[in-house]
């Protein structure tokens, strides 16, 4: 007679190992660390992320070239905003000098790509896979040089030091005419070429605007995924510990100097890449473009979008970038606002005031920014029709 004797101990159920499957109907019940640490850990996140990328790709064939140019600039600014979010949002180091590192990346890319033997420094390297990483690395080197100050200063003192970088950079770039071309003159921006094919001209993938739009979209996805993986790694957890309480982080063994330098280096790398890409859209770069207003714009993107979130930085960059065409149209609607910078009030002054107002309003009413609003809406519909 087969079977087990009554009262005998039963065999324990097998414990799933490796890449085990989730229990059906329990989307947040995980049976392995790999599932819990997945980049997109639910089906809804995977579907929504894929739908957003597909929609962005389809826009290249639907929107007009002028609209694609605005969105391409927004994607580049989003890369720079993600970089600022790494050092400020994740690592908790206040930085007001982001425009300085953007300028370093822009002029590094322009110098490498520029024609040799001209009035400005140029080496004739137009391949984007060469000058783009170089722009990021040179900016990262500058960030690493500044980073030791972060180990000695914090809060308002660190903000003042990084703010000084903007004014220092303005002076250097205005006087270094062999690199920048001088104030009011400028120079040609980096030429985006890939294996000999120029992407800033009409080609096999569509018009100039369509090709640049697709390039910026692909690079944004790459940089965003890299930043999200960094935040989920051991380095990201160290950043969060330093941000929350640096003394406690040092007590548990987190080397503060190493990770603060790394945060500034990675943030500056993102800023340098954004600077190299930003002016390829207009084909022209001028020293006056890297003022305090640009740093304020990046801060507004991070605070409005959502601190310490990659998706929030992207949302903030899109919000600010799509707001600019509306503010630039104010002189035609409000006669007292001028489009000339020599008159007061002008449209650029209005933009500065508007950025400050938006920052104050979001900090008071929604500190988590647009990302926090999305969380509120998502939680409401997940609990509907209940109110709790």
Task: List the SSEs and their pairings.
Blueprint (H helix, E strand, L loop, with lengths): L32 H4 L6 H17 L5 H26 L7 H16 L14 H19 L1 H5 L3 H20 L1 H4 L6 E2 L4 E2 L2 E2 L9 H25 L1 H11 L1 H6 L4 H23 L5 E2 L6 H14 L4 H19 L1 H4 L13 H19 L3 H15 L5
Short description:
The chain is mainly alpha-helical. It has helices spanning 33-36, 43-59, 65-90, 98-113, 128-146, 148-152, 156-175, 177-180, 208-232, 234-244, 246-251, 256-278, 292-305, 310-328, 330-333, 347-365, 369-383, and strands at residues 187-188, 193-194, 197-198, 284-285.
What does this structure look like?
The protein is mainly α and 388 residues long. The protein contains 17 helices and 4 strands. It has helices at residues 33-36, 43-59, 65-90, 98-113, 128-146, 148-152, 156-175, 177-180, 208-232, 234-244, 246-251, 256-278, 292-305, 310-328, 330-333, 347-365, 369-383, and strands spanning 187-188, 193-194, 197-198, 284-285. It has a two-stranded antiparallel sheet with strand order 1-4. Helix 4 packs across helix 12. The longest helix has 26 residues, at 65-90. It starts with 32 loop residues before the first helix and ends in a 5-residue tail after the last helix.
Structural class: mainly alpha
Q: Please estimate the helix content.
A: 55-70%
DSSP strand tally: 4
**Sequence of strands across the biggest β-sheet:** 1-4
Residues in β-strands, percent: under 5%
Tally of DSSP helical segments: 17
The backbone outline, from C-alpha atoms, is: globular
Order of helical and strand elements = HHHHHHHHEEEHHHHEHHHHH
Question: Could you name the ranges where pLDDT drops below 50 across 5 or more consecutive residues?
Answer: 1-8, 12-20
User: Taking Cα atoms only, what radius of gyration do you get, to the nearest Å?
Assistant: 24 Å
What gap, in angstroms, lies between the N and C termini? Answer: 57 Å
């Amino acid at each position: 007679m087969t079977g087990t004797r009554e009262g005998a101990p039963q065999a324990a159920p097998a414990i799933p190992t490796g890449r085990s499957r989730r229990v059906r109907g329990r989307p947040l019940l995980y049976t392995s660390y790999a599932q819990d640490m997945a980049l997109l850990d639910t089906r809804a996140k995977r579907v929504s992320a894929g739908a957003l990328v597909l929609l962005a790709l389809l826009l290249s064939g639907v929107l007009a070239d002028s609209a694609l140019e605005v969105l391409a600039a927004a994607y580049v600014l989003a890369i720079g905003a993600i970089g600022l979010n790494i050092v400020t949002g994740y690592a908790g180091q206040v930085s007001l000098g982001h425009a300085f590192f953007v300028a370093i990346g822009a002029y590094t890319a322009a110098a490498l790509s520029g024609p040799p033997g001209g009035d400005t420094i140029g080496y004739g390297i137009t391949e984007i896979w060469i000058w783009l990483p170089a722009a990021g690395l040179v900016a990262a080197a500058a960030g690493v040089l500044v980073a030791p100050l972060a180990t000695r200063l914090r809060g308002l003192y660190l903000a003042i030091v990084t703010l000084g970088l903007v004014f220092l950079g303005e002076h250097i770039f205005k006087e270094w005419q062999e690199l920048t071309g001088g104030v009011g003159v400028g120079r040609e921006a980096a030429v985006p070429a890939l294996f000999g094919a120029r992407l800033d001209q009409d080609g096999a993938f569509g018009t100039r605007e369509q090709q640049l739009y697709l390039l910026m979209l692909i690079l944004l996805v790459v940089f965003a995924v890299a930043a999200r993986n960094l935040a989920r790694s051991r380095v990201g957890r160290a950043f969060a510990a330093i941000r929350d309480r640096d003394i406690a982080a040092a007590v548990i063994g987190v080397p503060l100097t190493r990770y603060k330098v790394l945060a500034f280096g990675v943030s500056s790398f993102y800023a340098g890449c954004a600077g190299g890409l930003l002016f390829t859209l207009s084909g022209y770069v001028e020293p006056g473009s890297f003022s305090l207003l640009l740093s304020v714009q990046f801060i507004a993107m991070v605070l409005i979008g959502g601190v310490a979130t990659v998706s929030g930085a992207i949302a903030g960059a899109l919000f600010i970038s799509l707001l600019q065409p509306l503010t630039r149209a104010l002189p035609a609607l409000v006669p007292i606002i001028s489009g000339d910078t020599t008159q007061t009030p002008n449209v650029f002054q209005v933009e500065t005031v508007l950025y400050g107002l938006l920052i104050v309003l979001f900090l008071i009413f929604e500190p988590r920014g647009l990302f926090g609003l999305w969380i509120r809406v998502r939680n409401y519909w997940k609990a509907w029709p209940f109110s709790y």
